Inverse folding.
């Protein structure tokens, strides 16, 4: 390393590294300070240096036809890069970021610039953990570096650690691309010859940058620029920074390390122990003074056993766990690993982790540049009286009212962009449903501004941003008709006519080749709903949508003929798709000139085919019956009686009836001969056969609403010598059906035992 070059390799968000950076700045008094960070922000460092309240982050986004990317570069008070930036600037140094922009392809797939997840499983780290008896890199780091150390000892330890890490792990192509760009900055700073150069970078890159040499005439490279890229400062929070919330940050439990930064490693544990206990007590958890003393003593004992001069984070957490959790733990302690804790984590420990995470949320200085989207969102919220108040409130909307419809579109655009504070509690799943009322909860959210700024990568206005988000979803949907149907609904809800037309075009292209009958059925159902009922975008009766329905119905009729499987159980989604085809024939055939004769022939063949699934056969009968295919009701009942008897085996009866009832429920209720025949068939079943048929029978009769079930009961009771007025008593059980079945099974087991030992009251010789 050149005598004028001072490279400080750091772990991101480490108080010890931040302390070393501050010390080096004061000792070296560099002329140039180069920081691992996005070089495209160098012309905007003034924004970062405003009097913000930390934590904050640089949000970067990139979006073109080929690639979409979003990432964050977070800073908190103890981030070494933040200390280098602010204290270096205050000392009069020339401060620069020296890394590629976060939206650059070298960061493809990287959500957080300062994450360290890819380095955690290095062999050297795992070997050190085994040798020292520590669980994971976080405990290892605290043990080696976050203890009180002389700064020259800390610097030497960090150098050896990072050189060992780099020696065993080759750099990726992305690393080499970034390091070449950073190295060019270092060489240019050295070429200035006007004073010491200090470099602050991730420790993995430090050994490479330390080999930089003075290159006369070297110039600082220009930062890549692209009109499709956007970068803005956003407020951040400790919760989002915490690895226990899913962020692969350099350090977990940010509130703990903030305390270390503010008060030192010796005093921070006492403060965090108090914070944890206050949080537990504030949530109604009983934590006695004895528990507090026990936790403190256990933590101190563990710290001494581990050779710590100050309590480390894991010492304190282990002490709290041993004192507060009285029962055996079902899962490992969450701080022995990374990521979101298991849902089985003890609730007390969950509260402790939240205390160590902290509630702090950053705040940007009022002069911070704002993206156009934020102003547009605030405008629409104010215009419609939707701005969050201090408390949550309910907003109810009638979508047929123009003012309410516009409010709904604003709220749906916010929902599509995942802006917190706007939750739809009730409303139609598709905007062409008969009932068009919505209920929303509008509530304050500390992350509102941050998320709106982050959403600005999708567009400068609320409408454009929401449409942009759905446009990307459209590209990702591929040939999946079900996803396309959902996107069609979303485009209607946000009022994006152009997007809705493109989705319809995509549906048309896919429907002609869709191989999955159930997915095609969903598309037919959605398209028919739009064609019949849409009043929001004016697609009701549309010729374009009608032609899509015709193509989809033709494809559906072809697919249904391919459904075979005489032993296949009833599939509710297949039945839903058959309903969609039937409804298209019922409501759209005259206007769209659908080939009803061809459709009836298909369903006749399916009804007669012994290779078709029983539910499909029953549904085919239901389609023909509900479309008045038969000459009269007597003829229809005769066909239904014969078809049902042919499917009356225990393994198929319930599935056949499920299809029939799903498609011709009303017709069956009006046909007492069908009810009488079913009663006869069920009475003829043995107990064993009845139990075989029962699950599918429950599905089948579940399609009848209570009123129609009562009508069926009224027709059945006289057949058993009872008054039809007692029908309501049969509509509900005092116990769950599963309990009845379990009781029947138990009775059967007891009967078998009694018969085995000749205790049934019959002659012993007759016992099996």
């Amino acid at each position: 390393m050149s005598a004028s070059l001072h490279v400080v390799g750091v772990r991101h968000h480490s108080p010890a590294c931040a302390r070393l950076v501050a010390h080096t700045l004061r000792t070296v008094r560099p002329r140039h300070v180069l920081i691992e960070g996005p070089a495209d922000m160098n012309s905007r460092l003034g924004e970062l240096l405003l009097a913000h309240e930390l934590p904050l982050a640089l949000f970067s986004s990139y979006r073109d036809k080929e690639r979409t990317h979003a990432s964050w570069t977070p800073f908190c008070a103890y981030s070494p890069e933040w200390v280098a930036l602010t204290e270096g600037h205050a000392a009069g140094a020339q401060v620069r970021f020296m890394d590629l922009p976060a939206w650059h392809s070298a960061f493809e797939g990287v959500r957080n610039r300062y994450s360290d997840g890819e380095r955690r499983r290095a062999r050297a780290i795992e070997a050190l953990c085994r040798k020292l008896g520590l669980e994971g890199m976080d405990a290892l780091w605290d043990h080696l570096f976050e203890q009180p150390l002389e700064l020259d000892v800390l610097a030497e330890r960090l150098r050896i650690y990072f050189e060992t890490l780099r020696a065993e792990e080759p750099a990726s192509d992305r690393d080499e691309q970034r390091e070449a760009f950073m190295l060019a900055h270092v060489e240019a700073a050295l070429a200035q010859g006007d004073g010491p150069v200090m470099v602050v970078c991730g420790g993995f890159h430090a050994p490479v940058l330390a080999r930089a040499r003075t290159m006369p005439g070297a110039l600082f490279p220009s930062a890549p620029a692209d009109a499709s890229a956007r970068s803005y400062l956003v407020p951040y929070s400790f919760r989002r920074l915490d690895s226990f919330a899913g962020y692969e940050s350099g350090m977990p439990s940010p509130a703990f390390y903030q305390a270390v930064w503010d008060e030192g490693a010796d005093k921070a544990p006492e403060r965090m122990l108090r914070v944890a206990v206050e949080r537990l007590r504030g949530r109604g958890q009983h934590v006695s003074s004895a528990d507090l003393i026990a936790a403190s003593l256990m933590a101190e004992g563990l710290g001494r056993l581990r050779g710590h001069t100050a309590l480390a984070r894991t010492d304190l957490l282990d002490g709290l766990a041993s004192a507060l959790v009285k029962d055996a733990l079902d899962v490992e302690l969450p701080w022995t690993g990374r990521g979101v804790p298991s849902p089985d984590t003890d609730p007390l420990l969950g509260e402790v982790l939240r205390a160590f995470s902290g509630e702090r949320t950053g705040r940007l200085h009022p002069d911070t540049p704002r993206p156009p989207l934020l102003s547009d969102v605030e405008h629409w919220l104010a215009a419609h009286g939707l701005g969050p108040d201090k408390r949550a409130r309910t907003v109810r909307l009638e979508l047929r009212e123009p003012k309410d419809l516009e409010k709904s579109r604003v709220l749906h655009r916010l929902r599509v962009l995942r802006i917190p504070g706007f939750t739809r509690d009730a409303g139609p799943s598709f905007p062409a449903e008969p009932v068009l009322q919505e209920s929303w909860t509008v509530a304050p959210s500390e992350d509102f501004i941050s998320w709106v700024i982050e959403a600005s990568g999708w567009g400068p206005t609320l409408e454009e941003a929401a449409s942009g988000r759905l446009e990307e979803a459209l590209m990702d949907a591929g040939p999946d008709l079900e996803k396309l149907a959902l996107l069609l609904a979303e485009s209607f809800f946000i009022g994006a006519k152009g997007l809705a037309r493109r989705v319809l075009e995509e549906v048309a292209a896919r429907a002609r080749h869709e191989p999955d009958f159930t997915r095609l059925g969903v598309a037919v159902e959605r398209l028919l709903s739009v064609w019949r009922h849409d009043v929001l975008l004016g697609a009701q009766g549309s010729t374009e949508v009608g032609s899509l329905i015709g193509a989809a119905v033709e494809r559906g009729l072809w697919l249904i003929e391919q459904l075979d499987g005489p032993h296949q159980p009833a599939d509710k989604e297949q039945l839903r798709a058959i309903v969609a085809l039937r409804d298209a024939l019922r409501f759209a055939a005259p206007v769209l000139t659908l080939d009803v004769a061809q459709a009836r022939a298909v369903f006749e063949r399916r009804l007669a085919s012994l290779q078709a699934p029983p539910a499909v056969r029953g549904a085919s009968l239901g389609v023909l019956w509900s479309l008045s295919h038969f000459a009269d009701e007597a003829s229809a009942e005769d066909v239904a009686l014969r078809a049902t008897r042919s499917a009356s085996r225990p393994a198929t009866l319930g599935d056949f009836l499920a299809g029939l009832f799903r498609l011709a429920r009303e017709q069956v209720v009006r046909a007492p001969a069908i009810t009488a025949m079913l009663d006869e068939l069920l009475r003829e079943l043995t107990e064993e056969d009845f139990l075989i048929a029962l699950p599918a029978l429950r599905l089948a009769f579940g399609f009848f609403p209570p009123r129609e079930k009562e009508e069926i009961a009224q027709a059945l009771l006289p057949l058993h010598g009872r008054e039809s007025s007692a029908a309501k008593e049969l509509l509900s059980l005092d116990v769950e059906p599963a309990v009845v079945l379990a009781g029947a099974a138990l009775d059967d087991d007891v009967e078998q035992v009694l018969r085995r030992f000749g205790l049934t009251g019959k002659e012993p010789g007759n016992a099996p």
Observations:
- The two ends are 94 Å apart (CA to CA).
- The CA atoms of residues 1 and 210 lie 5 Å apart.
- The beta strands are 5-10, 32-38, 56-63, 68-75, 94-99, 197-202, 229-235, 393-398, 422-426, 437-442.
- The first strand starts at residue 5 and ends at 10.
